[in-house]
Amino acid sequence: MRLALYFQRKAPQVSSIFGLLGDQALYKVVRTALALPAAYSGTDIDKQAAFIGSKLKLEDLKDPQKLDSFITRFTAQWQAAQGVSASA
């Protein structure tokens, strides 16, 4: 999946939560992994940053195992949202 690969490549370089929010693809991965609705992006940007910061530590994105775990979470949420079966 293109989003997951992009996230895997770019996320470790992000230096602030706003870096995740400012990149559409990165933000989509985060929003999906955290099961946030698309309408959440209309929330005040500082509130989004505070909430996401409470759920996701940027240091974890630099740890390959934790990054892989987050990407696995994203993939599972993405598949569930798209209606893809586990056997596919």
* β-strand number: 0
- Mean pLDDT, to the nearest integer, reads 92
Number of helices: 5
Shape, please?
globular
Distance between the termini: 14 Å
The low-pLDDT segments are none
Integer-rounded radius of gyration: 13 Å
Protein structure class: mainly alpha
Helix content: 55-70%
**Major sheet:** none
Strand content: under 5%
Can you describe what's shown?
This protein is mainly α and about 90 residues long. About 60% of the residues lie in helices and about 0% in strands. The protein is built from five helices and no strands. It has helices at about 1-10, 15-20, 25-35, 45-55, 65-80. α1 packs across α3 (about 25-35) and α3 (about 25-35) crosses α5 (about 65-80). The longest helix has 19 residues, at about 65-80. The radius of gyration is 13 Å and the shape is globular.
Features:
single chain; 88 residues; mainly alpha; 62% helix
Produce the secondary structure layout.
Layout: H1 2-10, H2 17-22, H3 24-33, H4 45-55, H5 64-82
Helix pairs in contact: 1-3, 3-5
